[in-house]
Design brief:
By secondary structure, the protein is of the alpha+beta class. It has two domains: about 160 residues, Up-down Bundle (Four Helix Bundle (Hemerythrin (Met), subunit A)), CATH 1.20.120; about 90 residues, SCP2 sterol-binding domain (Nonspecific Lipid-transfer Protein, Chain A, 2-Layer Sandwich). It has ten helices and seven strands. α1 runs parallel beside α7 and α3 packs parallel to α5. The two termini are about 30 Å apart.
C-alpha cells in the first residue's frame, strides 16, 4: 500500500479543514490580524493562502491585483508569488466573508476528492515536489493545512490537539524528507547512526542510518552515534521552518556526537 491511501488521506484532509473551520469560528477581529511565524502574513493572510491553493485545484484563477508581488521581501520563488496574489487579493475581505469563502471552497474540494476514481488518485501530476501521484499531492496538502493550523494556533495562543489522523498523515511528509535533510543539509557523515527521540502527541523514535546516503530505517544496526531528543511540537515547527533550533537550545537534548547533532537540528527545516 502507498503512503497515501485515498480514503485515509481524504479523511485526514477533510478533518483538517473542519478543525481549522472550528478554530477560525472562535476568533475575534483582532485575532484575525495577529502576525504569524510566516514572514509578512497574519492569520487572515494564512486563510487567504488556504483558499488560494484549494481554488487553484478547483480550476479558479487568483484575483487581479495591482501589486508586483515579486517585489515583496518574503517572496523568493514563483510558488510564493502565486500564494501572494491570493493573499493580496483577499486582504481587504471582511473576516466573516473570508471564513464563508473558506467553507465554500473546502466543501467543493471535499466533494471533488470523494468522487475521484482510483485511477485519478494515482495519476501523475505537478506537485510542490515535482511530478508525483495526485494522492501524494493530497498528503502534501494535509501537511500544509496542518502546519497552517499550528501557525494560527501559535499566533493567537489557542492550543489544540497535535496528534490523531490528520497529524499522523501530515507527519509522513516530514519523515519522508528526513533522510535528505539529515544527509544533505545536516551533512551527517558516513557511518553516522542518528536517532530522534520525540515526546508528546507524536511520540516516537526515528532512526537515520548513513551508508553512502542517509536513510530512514526501522531500527539501527548498532548504537546511535548521535541522539537528539525534543518534543514533537518543537520538532514539527523546526522541520516546518517556523522556528529555529538555535532559539530553543534548552528544549533540545543532544547525546553522543553533539557536533553532528547540532548541525542536524540547525538544518532540519525542509519546507520551501
Amino acid at each position: 500500500m502507498s503512503g497515501w491511501p485515498q480514503d485515509a488521506v481524504v479523511d485526514a484532509l477533510t478533518e483538517e479543514w473542519r478543525v481549522i473551520d472550528a478554530l477560525l469560528a472562535e476568533l475575534d477581529g483582532d485575532q484575525w490580524l495577529a502576525p504569524s511565524n510566516l514572514p509578512g502574513w497574519t492569520v487572515h493572510d494564512i486563510v487567504s493562502h488556504l483558499i488560494g491553493t484549494e481554488s487553484l485545484l478547483a480550476g479558479i484563477n487568483p484575483p487581479s491585483i495591482d501589486l508586483d508581488v515579486h517585489a515583496l521581501p518574503h517572496v523568493h520563488n514563483e510558488i510564493a508569488a502565486f500564494n501572494e496574489r491570493w493573499v493580496e487579493g483577499l486582504r481587504r475581505t471582511p473576516h466573516a466573508d473570508l471564513l464563508a469563502h473558506y467553507r465554500d471552497i473546502t466543501a467543493t474540494r471535499a466533494d471533488a476528492l470523494r468522487s475521484m476514481t482510483g485511477a485519478d488518485w494515482d495519476a501523475e501530476t505537478q506537485t510542490p515536489v515535482g511530478l508525483a501521484p495526485y494522492g501524494r499531492f493530497m498528503r502534501i496538502r494535509t501537511f500544509d493545512c496542518w502546519m497552517h493550523e499550528l501557525d494560527i494556533r501559535d499566533a493567537v495562543g489557542i492550543p489544540g490537539e497535535e496528534g490523531g489522523l490528520r497529524a499522523e498523515t501530515a507527519f509522513g511528509e516530514i519523515t519522508s524528507a528526513l533522510g535528505f535533510v539529515v544527509g544533505k543539509r545536516g551533512k551527517a557523515p558516513e557511518g553516522a547512526r542518528i536517532t530522534f527521540e520525540l515526546e508528546g502527541p507524536l511520540a516516537r523514535s526515528l532512526h537515520i542510518s548513513v551508508d553512502a546516503r542517509a536513510t530512514l530505517v526501522p531500527e539501527l544496526d548498532g548504537p546511535a552515534t548521535t541522539t537528539i531528543s525534543m518534543s514533537s511540537p518543537l520538532f514539527t515547527r523546526i522541520a516546518g521552518g517556523r522556528v529555529h533550533a538555535s532559539d530553543h537550545r534548552t528544549d533540545i537534548s543532544l547525546r553522543g556526537d553533539t557536533t553532528v547533532g547540532a548541525r542536524v537540528v540547525d538544518n532540519l527545516a525542509f519546507t520551501i
